[in-house]
Amino acid sequence: MRGCFPNEGRENVATPDKKFSVSDEFVHLARIALAGRSQDVQAFLQRTARRAKSVAPDLSESVSGLLKEAPTRSSPLRRQAEVPLPVDMDSRLQLMRVEERPVLDWEPVFFPTVSKQLHALVDERLNSDALRAVSLEPTRTALFVGPPGVGKTMAARWVARELGRPLLTLDLAAVMSSYLGRTGSNLRLVLDYAKGIDCVLLLDELDAIAKRRDDREEIGELKRLVTVLIQQIDDWPSSNLLIAATNHAELLDPAIWRRFEAVVDFPLPDRRTAESFVLQSLRDHTSSAAQWARAVSIALEGRSFSDLARDVSFARRQAALRGEDLDTHLSNLLRSDGLSKQSRIDLAVELVDQGIMSARKAKELTGVARDTIRTRKRAARIDEAAEEAVG
Q1: Rounded Cα–Cα distance for residues 17 and 3 (Å)
Q2: Which domains are seen in the chain, by residue range?
Q3: Has this prediction a pTM greater than 0.90?
Q4: What is the arithmetic mean of pLDDT over 328-348?
């Protein structure tokens, strides 16, 4: 191979930030190539071409030319036609669900901090060249944490859609083989398959297989699964995004936590976020969507997005089945049991202020006296006038 490397015989060449070692680069390239991580090979070659530009321009130019000529993947899931989806050897069930073009029933409404983190994950991958120009890689792994129904799965689907990549979701019920010894093999099959595809992989209900290894109630085989998962995450290629989701973060093994480069905490929606979600759900179905969205978000305070969606959908179905106005059935969602005193007052004022019901009816629903409602409405008008004056 003499002559292939311009600096042969002078392998370590100083650069402004670090030494460029042809032998080290070659060994690292061989390592990831033998591991079958073809996408990481391309990323590595891009970085090598950039680093070699000042000290080995011929090498840099040759590698850059090869990268430009490299064939592109016409279909992210082209391997599906060549390699069957992995299945459990006992049940013959497929171990993952595939959404080649993820579709959302509606645009998700995320808490502002969540939205910021999700957009960052997308931006890093859409602009990965800018990161690699400074020897950085986009985030490889992200952990979505939060109670059920707060949008973790939908967020993974949204990320995949924004990236234009298929979403592969690991079906943990299928992965857990009747023979626990095969569960680790199932896990390896899924992750090895996903590594070779331009995709977003979602490991849903991560706590089912990644429980703390100091849990005395778990048998040894389940504990070994954590080790398998750690090894697989460590070997995950930077070209793809691995997302895991859990409803029970406290059950996860600490070593699993450390493997995720980003942790996104999905809280229950606050009143403003819930209002935006309900408004979006009602906008095309009633002219008074804005008024109802505010009232419903107060009445259903503390509920998850899935709870809100279920209740609104139920009201719509009932109205359709009975041929009645939707507003009639939305009123059935209004309740004050379990609300704090301040929330009951806010609900009563909102109901009267929006003309949804009279002060007497609002009192019957919330227990808030009509004098209190009038006093709060008057105070609200004074505050609005003061704000307008300042503006």
Answers
A1: 26
A2: 12-69 (no CATH), 79-265 (3.40.50.300), 271-390 (no CATH)
A3: no
A4: 91
